[in-house]
Design a protein that fits this description.
It contains eleven helices and eleven strands. It is α+β, with helices and mostly antiparallel strands. It has a five-stranded mixed β-sheet, covered by helices on one side. It has a two-stranded parallel sheet with strand order 3-6. A two-stranded antiparallel ribbon has the order 4-5.
């Protein structure tokens, strides 16, 4: 349901990936990647190894140890000149997800990004807090909070600076700045509406922080739109986003799936449960596809944001029913400033370390390493012309 039938040029997408059809020329699906260091096969080690390709130390205490993740290695190189070296996002707040896994500390399951083997970087799930981290530096904290209570825009703090900037720009650049700021305002209005809605209609949903949209899709879209704004404004160049947490018991009533996600993943080869799992996966991919389309529609330099981006989408678990880490669902979207030859399906003949892909992506953003974790080479096919 994920893997394309044919190799080479992406012709017909598998059902789970069907929403990527409008942008498939900017996407490459990679089959037969594995995470050997995620074994013995737990949710904690799956999440921990996805970006580190490292083996997590078995502990429930504070002596946890993993490895620096690929995003943070990139941030050390390309995040030096931006306001935020990196941005870590999620859909669940850490306070609401205390369950740990098979003797492994919760920190492995709750954090995708690690700036060192002993330093996990907590992700933020609240759109308002993310928005403030991107655009909320004006005025004192007390003034900003007062303005928010009055439903004022944070951009109002910057009116004089914006007017001064516009006076230094030509008509074309002024139009682009105006369009960007209007997008910022529109996102903030949506955050304010979500805050008002949840204040008036609180829901007993432990997986959803207070003050975000009630619907999962609306929350995810806000988080994706904040990423577009962060990249467009060059506030950061490195982002991680945990779209669905390991062992999540979230339900998806908006797509007709009332079963909790994690129990459903242990489907026991029940065709009906497999179909519902596929529906969830297709739903997640559709939200990512919307994001990719927005990147494609956003001008950047001599192309678009998508042309100048590299996005890894996937999971550290291949078959959740048996907790294996082989044949992972992995795709890469973007253009790498003209370097990536997308619109294809790459299938390896034998299991290949996911770290090979990490090493390749690092190379394409200017970070030269001889190896990463258990890598045995690079995925050169990702940047080679497609033979027809």
């Amino acid at each position: 349901r994920w893997t394309p039938r044919s190799d080479g040029k992406l012709e017909q997408l598998a059902p789970i990936l069907s929403s990527l059809e409008p942008v498939k020329d900017h996407v490459t699906v990679i089959t037969n990647l594995e995470l050997q260091n995620a074994y013995p096969g737990t949710h904690a080690t799956s999440n921990a190894a996805f970006l580190s390709a490292a083996k997590a130390r078995l502990t429930e205490s504070s002596d946890y140890y993993l490895g620096t993740t690929v995003d943070q290695i990139a941030a050390q190189q390309i995040g030096r000149q931006t306001q935020l070296p990196s941005l870590e996002l999620a859909m669940d707040l850490l306070q609401t997800v205390g369950q740990c896994d098979n003797g492994y500390a919760c920190v492995y399951q709750n954090n995708l990004s690690w700036s060192s083997p002993t330093t996990p970087l907590p992700a933020e799930a609240h759109p308002r807090i993310v928005f403030e981290s991107l655009f909320g530096e004006g005025g004192s904290m007390a003034d900003r909070r007062a303005a928010l209570r009055q439903r004022a825009s944070l951009l109002d703090w910057f009116n004089e600076d914006i007017a001064r900037l516009n006076g230094q720009l030509g008509p074309g650049d002024r139009a682009r700045v105006s369009q960007y700021l209007e997008t910022v305002r529109e996102v903030e209005r949506r955050i304010q509406k979500a805050e008002a809605d949840t204040a008036n209609n609180p829901l007993p949903d432990l997986d959803r922080p207070v003050g975000v949209p009630a619907a999962y899709a609306d929350h995810a879209r806000l988080m994706f739109d904040l990423q577009v704004l962060a990249l467009q404004g060059d506030v950061t160049r490195v982002i991680t986003f945990q779209l669905a947490r390991e062992t999540s018991n979230r339900t998806y009533p908006e797509i007709g799936v009332s079963d909790p996600h994690h129990p459903l993943s242990h489907h026991g080869n029940d065709p009906e449960k497999i179909a519902r799992m596929a529906k969830i996966n297709q739903f997640h991919v559709s939200l990512f596809a919307e994001f990719v389309a927005k990147l494609k529609a956003t001008p950047e330099g001599n192309g678009t944001l998508l042309d100048h981006s590299l996005y890894l989408y996937g999971s550290g678990m291949g078959n959740p029913n048996v907790h294996d880490h082989n044949n992972l669902p992995i795709l890469v979207a973007g253009g790498a400033a003209g370097g990536m030859k997308a619109g294809r399906h790459i299938r390896f003949d034998k299991p290949t370390p996911l770290a090979n892909l990490h090493l390749t992506l690092l190379d394409k953003v200017g970070v030269r390493l001889d190896f990463f974790a258990d890598s045995r080479g690079k995925v050169d096919e990702l940047f080679e012309p497609l033979s027809v």
